[in-house]
C-alpha cells in the first residue's frame, strides 16, 4: 500500500533530473518507477539505513549534517542504546570520548604555540592572503633549517665535541692514511696567532677564514675517524654521510607533502570557480571568532580573496574578448620581450663565469697583498652574483607588465625567469671551483688526485664560498631595507616633487622576495655538507629577515593593486623550492661520488671518495646480510622492482580517474537537485495560483 502523501510516479518523471537520466540512458522508462520509487519508500529506506548498519552511527551527533531536532533525537537514541551495553563497552566508549576531547584540547592549545601566528594573521588581514603566503613560506623555511641543524649537530658536531673533551668516557680513534704521499696530508689553516687587529677578525668573520676556518663550522674541523663511547664504536664518516642523505630526504619529503596539499587546493579551485565563490560567500566565515580584531582581520582576508577572484575573472573575460589584431600585437610583444629576457640571462651567465675565473686566478696571486684587496677579490663573485640577483628581477618585473598576463601567472613567469638567474649562478660558481680543483693539468693532481697545492682541504674552501654567499646575501637584504626602502618612504612622504611622487609607494614584490629566500635555501642545502653548522646561520638569518620584511611591508609598502591568491602562490613557491633542492642534488652528488676527497682533512681522508664509506661499511656486515644487500642492488632485483612500481603507478592513475568520474557525477547530481528544487517551487506556485 502506498503511504499517505506519496507523489505519483508520473509527477516524479517530470522532474529535470529524471528527464536528464532518461535522455542519458536512451529514453528507457521501464525501470523508472522501480528506481525512483515514492516518497514514502524513500523515507522508509532512509529510516531503515541506520538499522542495517547494526547500531548507532560512528560520527558524533554534533558533526552530522542534520537540524538540531534530529541531532537531539540521535543523541537520545544513543543514550538509550548505551543503557543496554556491558560495563566494558560503556567504559570503552567513555574513554574514547575522553581521549578525543583531550586530543582536541591539546590541538587547540598547540595552535597558540605556532611561530608568528598573530603576526601572520595580522599581515593577512591588512595585505591579503598572497603576501601572507610569503611569510608562511618563510616560517616553513625557518622550521626546516632548524630541524636540519638539529640533525647535523646531533649526529656530527656533538659526537666530535664529546670525544675531544672526553665526556662520557669517550675516546678518539685516528686511522693514518695508507698509500698516500705525505705531501697530500699537509694542511695548515691560517689561524690567527699573536696580536691581531680588530679588522682582521671582521675580515675572517665575513670570509670564513682565519679563526673561523679551524672551528666546527667547516668540514676541515672533523678529523675523527671513530668515537668510542664506553664499548660502543661510533663511525663518524658513515654518520656524516647518512646525516647528509637524511636532511636531503627530509627536505624532499616535507616539500612534497606541502606541495600535495597545495595541489589539492588548486584542483578544488580550478575545477569549479563558481563553487569556490559560493564557498567563500556562504561558508567562508569562521563563527568561532569572538575577538573584534580577529573578526576585522578575517573580514579583510575574505574581501581580498573575493577581490582576487573577481580580478582574475575580469582578466579572463578581457582575454576572451580580444580581437585578432590585439592578439597579434600582444603575441608579437611577448616574443620580443622573451628575446630580451634570454639576452639578459645569457649576459648574466657569461659575466658570472668570467668574474669567477678571474677571482680564482687573482686570489692566488695576491697572497702577499693587503687584506682589503684580498677580501675584495674573494668577494668579487658574490658581489657580481648578488648584483645580478638584484637587478635581474627588477628588469623582469618591469617587462612583464607589458605582457598582459593574469596576476597569478605573472608571479609564476617572473619566478621562472628569476630562477634561471639565481640558481644558475650557483651552478656557474661551483663549476668554476671544480675546474680549479680537479682539472689542474700536467702532473699537479697526480699524487693526490686533486690540486693539493691550491686546495689542501678543498671541502672547506667550497664551504667558505657558500658561507660568503649566504652572509653577503643577508647583508644586501638589510642594506636594501635600510638605505633604499626607508629613504624612499621619507622622500615620498615629505617631498612634493612630481619626479619623486611619480615613483610613489612601492608594492611588495612577492616573486622577488620569494626568490631571495629560495636562493639562500639552495645555498644552505649545498653548503651543509661542507659546513655542517650552516643551517644554524640560515635559521638565524631567516628569523631576522621575517621581522625586517614585516617592518618594511607595514611602513614602506602599499597593498597590491591586483591581489594574489594564496593557494596557487603557495603551491608554486614550493615547486620552485623543489627545483632548488633538485639543483642541490647535482653538486652534492658530484662532490660525494666523483671528486676525490681531501687527504689532509675531514672524516673521509682515508677514502678515495666520500661514497666509499658505504661499501666499506657493508663489507663489515655478516656474509648473509651482504648477499642480501648486493642482490638488492643487482639488475635481477631492479627490473622486477621497476615493473612492480609501474603496475602500482598505473593502478593509482586508474583509481584517480575513477574518483574523478565519481566527483563529476556527484557534481551533476548537485546541479540536478537544484533544478528539481526550482521545478518544485514553480509547481507549488502554479498550484497556489490555480
From TrEMBL:
<feature type="transmembrane region" description="Helical">
    <location>
        <begin position="414"/>
        <end position="434"/>
    </location>
</feature>
<feature type="transmembrane region" description="Helical">
    <location>
        <begin position="331"/>
        <end position="353"/>
    </location>
</feature>
<protein>
    <recommendedName>
        <fullName>Transmembrane channel-like protein</fullName>
    </recommendedName>
</protein>
<dbReference type="InterPro" id="IPR012496">
    <property type="entry name" value="TMC_dom"/>
</dbReference>
<dbReference type="GO" id="GO:0005886">
    <property type="term" value="C:plasma membrane"/>
</dbReference>
<feature type="domain" description="TMC">
    <location>
        <begin position="457"/>
        <end position="567"/>
    </location>
</feature>
<feature type="transmembrane region" description="Helical">
    <location>
        <begin position="637"/>
        <end position="656"/>
    </location>
</feature>
<keyword id="KW-0812">Transmembrane</keyword>
<dbReference type="InterPro" id="IPR038900">
    <property type="entry name" value="TMC"/>
</dbReference>
<feature type="transmembrane region" description="Helical">
    <location>
        <begin position="137"/>
        <end position="158"/>
    </location>
</feature>
<keyword id="KW-0472">Membrane</keyword>
<dbReference type="Pfam" id="PF07810">
    <property type="entry name" value="TMC"/>
</dbReference>
<feature type="compositionally biased region" description="Low complexity">
    <location>
        <begin position="34"/>
        <end position="49"/>
    </location>
</feature>
<feature type="region of interest" description="Disordered">
    <location>
        <begin position="1"/>
        <end position="79"/>
    </location>
</feature>
<feature type="transmembrane region" description="Helical">
    <location>
        <begin position="571"/>
        <end position="590"/>
    </location>
</feature>
<feature type="transmembrane region" description="Helical">
    <location>
        <begin position="237"/>
        <end position="256"/>
    </location>
</feature>
<feature type="transmembrane region" description="Helical">
    <location>
        <begin position="211"/>
        <end position="231"/>
    </location>
</feature>
<keyword id="KW-1133">Transmembrane helix</keyword>
<feature type="transmembrane region" description="Helical">
    <location>
        <begin position="379"/>
        <end position="402"/>
    </location>
</feature>
<feature type="compositionally biased region" description="Basic and acidic residues">
    <location>
        <begin position="55"/>
        <end position="79"/>
    </location>
</feature>
<feature type="transmembrane region" description="Helical">
    <location>
        <begin position="466"/>
        <end position="484"/>
    </location>
</feature>
<dbReference type="GO" id="GO:0008381">
    <property type="term" value="F:mechanosensitive monoatomic ion channel activity"/>
</dbReference>
<comment type="similarity">
    <text>Belongs to the TMC family.</text>
</comment>
Amino acid at each position: 500500500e502506498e503511504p499517505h502523501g506519496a507523489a505519483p510516479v508520473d509527477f516524479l518523471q517530470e522532474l529535470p533530473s529524471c528527464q536528464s537520466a532518461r535522455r542519458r540512458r536512451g529514453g528507457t522508462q521501464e525501470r523508472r518507477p522501480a528506481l525512483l520509487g515514492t516518497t514514502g519508500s524513500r523515507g522508509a529506506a532512509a529510516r531503515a539505513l541506520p538499522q542495517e548498519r547494526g547500531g548507532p552511527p560512528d560520527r558524533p551527533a554534533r558533526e552530522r549534517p542534520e537540524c538540531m531536532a534530529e541531532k537531539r533525537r540521535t543523541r537520545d537514541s544513543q543514550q538509550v542504546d548505551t543503557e543496554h551495553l556491558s560495563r566494558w563497552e560503556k567504559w570503552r566508549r567513555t574513554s574514547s570520548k575522553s581521549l578525543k576531547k583531550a586530543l582536541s584540547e591539546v590541538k587547540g592549545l598547540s595552535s597558540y604555540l605556532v611561530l608568528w601566528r598573530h603576526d601572520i594573521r595580522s599581515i593577512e588581514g591588512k595585505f591579503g592572503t598572497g603576501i601572507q603566503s610569503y611569510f608562511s613560506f618563510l616560517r616553513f623555511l625557518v622550521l626546516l633549517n632548524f630541524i636540519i641543524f638539529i640533525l647535523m649537530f646531533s649526529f656530527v658536531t656533538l659526537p666530535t665535541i664529546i670525544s675531544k673533551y672526553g665526556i662520557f668516557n669517550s675516546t678518539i680513534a685516528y686511522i693514518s692514511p695508507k698509500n698516500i704521499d705525505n705531501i697530500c696530508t699537509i694542511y695548515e689553516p691560517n689561524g690567527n696567532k699573536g696580536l691581531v687587529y680588530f679588522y682582521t677578525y671582521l675580515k675572517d668573520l665575513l670570509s670564513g677564514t682565519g679563526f673561523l676556518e679551524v672551528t666546527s663550522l667547516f668540514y676541515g674541523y672533523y678529523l675523527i675517524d671513530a668515537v668510542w663511547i664506553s664499548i660502543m664504536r661510533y663511525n663518524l664518516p658513515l654518520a656524516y654521510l647518512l646525516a647528509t642523505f637524511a636532511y636531503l630526504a627530509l627536505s624532499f619529503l616535507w616539500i612534497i607533502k606541502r606541495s600535495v596539499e597545495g595541489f589539492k587546493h588548486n584542483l578544488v579551485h580550478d575545477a569549479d570557480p563558481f563553487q569556490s565563490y559560493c564557498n567563500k560567500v556562504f561558508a567562508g566565515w569562521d563563527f568561532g571568532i569572538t575577538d573584534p580584531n580577529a573578526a576585522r582581520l578575517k573580514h579583510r582576508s575574505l574581501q581580498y580573496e573575493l577581490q582576487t577572484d573577481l580580478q582574475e575573472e575580469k582578466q579572463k573575460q578581457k582575454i576572451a574578448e580580444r580581437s585578432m589584431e590585439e592578439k597579434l600585437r600582444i603575441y608579437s610583444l611577448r616574443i620580443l620581450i622573451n628575446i630580451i629576457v634570454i639576452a639578459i640571462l645569457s649576459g648574466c651567465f657569461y659575466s658570472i663565469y668570467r668574474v669567477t675565473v678571474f677571482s680564482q686566478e687573482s686570489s692566488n696571486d695576491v697572497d702577499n697583498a693587503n687584506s682589503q684587496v684580498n677580501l675584495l677579490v674573494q668577494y668579487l663573485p658574490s658581489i657580481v652574483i648578488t648584483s645580478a640577483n638584484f637587478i635581474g628581477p627588477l628588469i623582469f618585473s618591469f617587462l612583464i607588465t607589458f605582457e598582459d598576463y593574469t596576476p597569478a601567472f605573472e608571479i609564476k613567469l617572473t619566478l621562472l625567469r628569476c630562477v634561471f638567474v639565481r640558481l644558475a649562478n650557483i651552478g656557474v660558481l661551483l663549476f668554476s671551483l671544480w675546474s680549479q680543483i680537479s682539472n689542474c693539468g700536467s702532473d699537479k693532481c697526480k699524487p693526490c688526485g686533486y690540486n693539493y697545492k691550491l686546495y689542501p682541504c678543498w671541502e672547506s674552501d667550497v664551504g667558505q664560498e657558500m658561507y660568503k654567499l649566504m652572509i653577503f646575501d643577508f647583508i644586501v637584504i638589510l642594506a636594501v631595507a635600510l638605505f633604499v626602502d626607508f629613504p624612499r618612504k621619507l622622500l615620498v612622504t615629505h617631498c612634493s616633487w612630481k619626479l619623486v611622487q611619480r615613483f610613489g609607494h612601492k608594492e611588495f614584490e612577492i616573486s622577488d622576495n620569494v626568490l631571495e629566500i629560495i636562493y639562500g635555501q639552495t645555498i644552505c642545502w649545498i653548503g651543509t655538507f661542507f659546513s655542517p653548522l650552516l643551517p644554524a646561520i640560515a635559521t638565524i638569518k631567516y628569523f631576522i629577515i621575517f621581522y625586517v620584511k614585516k617592518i618594511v611591508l607595514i611602513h614602506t609598502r602599499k597593498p597590491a593593486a591586483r591581489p594574489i591568491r594564496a593557494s596557487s602562490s603557495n603551491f608554486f613557491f614550493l615547486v620552485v623550492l623543489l627545483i632548488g633542492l633538485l639543483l642541490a642534488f647535482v653538486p652534492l652528488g658530484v662532490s660525494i661520488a666523483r671528486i676525490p676527497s681531501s687527504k689532509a682533512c675531514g672524516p673521509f681522508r682515508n677514502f678515495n671518495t666520500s661514497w666509499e664509506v658505504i661499501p666499506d661499511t657493508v663489507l663489515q656486515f655478516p656474509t648473509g646480510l651482504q648477499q642480501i644487500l648486493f642482490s638488492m642492488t643487482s639488475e635481477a632485483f631492479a627490473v622486477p622492482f621497476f615493473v612492480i612500481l609501474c603496475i602500482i603507478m598505473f593502478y593509482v592513475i586508474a583509481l584517480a580517474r575513477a574518483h574523478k568520474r565519481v566527483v563529476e557525477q556527484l557534481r551533476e547530481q548537485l546541479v540536478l537537485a537544484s533544478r528539481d528544487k526550482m521545478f518544485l517551487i514553480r509547481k507549488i506556485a502554479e498550484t497556489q495560483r490555480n
